[in-house]
Specification:
The protein contains 3 helices and 25 strands. It is mainly beta. A hairpin with a 2-residue loop joins strand 14 and strand 15. It starts with 5 loop residues before the first helix and ends in a 12-residue tail after the last strand. The C terminus is likely disordered.
């Protein structure tokens, strides 16, 4: 026991028991969330999910990442994963090494306040609202010291799945008498390329867990493996209210009743020997400054028309923006996941008076626009630079009316 504290031993035993029980303990999908009571150390596996307190007075949730090497050694700082908008809210922007005044409280169980531990945060190593909503924060402590204190980190899922799967959310929402971590169970699935909900990027996952204010930044977890499948970005404000009349015929209404999250499994390659390296060969999470001109005029639905001679007239993107790099490349796809494939991008285009006005279509359905800023005309798109792709999507129909039965797939 000379190298392992009692708290650490309890945590290790709890982790070993993960595969031996249903992590949701029989919780029915979409049932009300419940507060976790940890007086008997049943939930040590989630002691690394914390409450993130920001200088503004607002709170989010966050999760301690397991960045130990293959030998199980924790050799670097402690890193949190949370939602990007909790750190820096500017649509189309990403930042690296951003100063931040915040703190995180681990062992955040309402029935064990004496075990809660607070740690300071001074730097967001990366925060993005460019096609995703994620942030990596560095805690003012080493991962080894937190593990020694019984704070258990969680692993990122090894790969991304778009199939529906049972998931759990562990978060630190506000507004409850029992101030602590809460568990919610639900199914998680891809939201599809077209999401008729403002501020949600086409790469999102959706779920109907019982989430509340303060759940942003909380992890969605595989119910069997306890791996992080995504980080909550947007919480449904109307989930617990009766569905209004006609909601089933409105994609906007239906979309607003889901929570949305983003996968972070691509960050695996950004940790080298336990240290977050945003400019690594397979990472390259560069700062991005894409400003959409008049974003309030962006349309979710566009339609085909005919002129007096019966000729087909297709709508255009009419997308004006600015970028703080000299060039960009772009393409359009039907599935936004294809934005991260390097093929079919345009030649380099100057960002001076940047304007994309190519036709949309002619096929009905979803169309996504992918934009990547580059520093020179000769710069090739690599897997690393494709991490910085900006995406937007519309739905093309044959009539001016918004389709009534559009379903995200």
């Amino acid at each position: 026991m000379n190298h392992l504290s009692f708290a650490g031993l309890i945590g290790l035993l709890a982790i070993c028991a993960v595969q031996a029980r249903d992590l949701g303990e029989g919780a029915v999908n979409d049932s009300p969330s419940r507060a976790l009571q940890n007086s008997e150390h049943l939930y040590e596996i989630w002691s690394g999910v914390g409450r993130l307190s920001l200088q503004s007075g607002e709170t989010c949730s966050a999760v301690l990442l397991d960045t130990r090497n293959r030998q199980g050694q924790a050799s670097g700082p402690a890193y949190l994963l949370t939602s990007g908008h909790c750190v820096f809210f500017q649509y189309g922007s990403a930042r690296t090494n951003l100063p931040l005044k915040a703190s995180v409280t681990f062992h955040y169980f309402h029935d064990m306040p004496q075990r809660m531990r607070r740690y300071t945060i001074q730097t967001a190593r990366w925060s993005s609202l460019v096609g995703t909503d994620l942030a990596v924060l560095e805690v003012d402590a080493t991962l080894a010291s937190l593990i020694q204190a019984g704070v258990n980190p969680l692993k990122l899922a090894s790969h991304q799945t778009y199939e529906s799967q049972d998931a759990l959310n562990i978060g630190a929402p506000s507004g409850f008498t029992e101030q602590g971590l809460r568990l919610s169970a639900c199914a998680e699935q891809t939201a599809g390329t077209f999401i008729d909900h403002p501020g949600v990027f086409p790469s999102a996952m959706k779920n109907s867990c019982d989430l509340h204010a303060g759940s942003s930044g909380s992890p969605m977890l595989n119910r069997r493996t306890n791996e992080i499948t995504g980080i909550v970005s947007k919480v449904a404000v109307s989930r617990n209210t009766p569905e209004p009349p006609g909601c089933e015929h409105s994609t906007s209404c239906k979309a607003a009743r889901f929570n949305y999250s983003y996968s972070a499994n691509f960050l695996h390659k950004c940790f080298i020997d336990g240290v977050f390296t945003s400019d690594g060969a397979d990472c390259s999470l560069e700062p991005v400054e894409l400003t959409v001109s008049e974003p309030w005029n962006l349309k979710s639905y566009v339609h085909r028309t005919q002129n007096a001679d019966g000729q087909l007239i297709l709508p255009t993107w009419d997308f004006r923006f600015s970028l703080e790099v000299p060039f960009y490349r772009y393409k359009t796809v039907h599935n936004a996941r294809d934005c991260k494939a390097p093929d079919n991008y345009s030649a380099a285009v100057s960002t001076e008076d940047a304007y994309i006005n190519t036709e949309i279509g002619p096929q009905n359905g979803t169309h996504a626009l992918c934009i990547i800023g580059i520093s020179s005309e000769e710069q090739h798109l690599t897997r690393a630079t494709l991490n910085n792709v900006f995406t937007s999507a519309v739905y093309l129909s044959a009539t001016p009316a918004a389709p009534s039965q559009v379903v995200s797939k």
